[in-house]
Design brief:
transmembrane, mainly alpha, 2 domains, single chain, 53% helix, transmembrane helix, membrane
């Protein structure tokens, strides 16, 4: 009985080691692709946020109570990107 068990265990080990190696590398590749995806999303989001013109508008107060008296609910949000009331601040 013992003579049959040893070859079977060696056969199973010869299959498990490469399988675990492949699974480990698949996990590393998936982790890397997730990190790259997160970085790409952060870059896209930051580019979108830099399109918000509020800080250069003459109506922008920079007061956290009322950032914009003209459009208070749109101030510093993505809705303000195409604000029809935007007026460039003159320095």
């Amino acid at each position: 009985m013992l003579s049959l068990t040893v070859p079977f265990i060696e056969f199973i080990q010869s299959l498990i080691v490469p399988f675990c190696f492949i699974i480990a590398w698949v996990f590393i590749v998936m982790l890397g692709s997730s990190v790259i995806g997160i970085i790409v999303d952060v870059i896209k989001r930051s580019k979108k946020m830099h399109e918000i013109p509020c800080s250069h508008c003459q109506y922008f107060t920079n007061d956290y109570h009322l950032k914009c008296p003209v459009n208070p609910f749109q101030a510093n949000t993505e809705e303000a990107i195409n604000c029809k009331d935007y007026q460039m601040r003159e320095y």
